[in-house]
Design goal:
With 63 residues, the chain is an all-alpha fold. It has one domain. Helices cover 48% and strands 0% of the residues. It has 3 helices and no strands. The mean pLDDT is 86.
Length: 63
Amino acid sequence: MEMQFTNELNQELLDAINASPFTAEQLAEMDESARAVVEEQAVFARQHPVIAIYRLAVPGIGA
């Protein structure tokens, strides 16, 4: 059976999008300037939440 994807934005997908790509340990090991960049990006993401997704169909992929 072929895998079907939709443009539905469900809670599971939102949780995956909103999850930090860094663990607490990784953040602790970063230097101050790197942590500042990560925090700036997190603030931006909170101010501009994901409200929609668009998946493109491409021939030959997943066939």
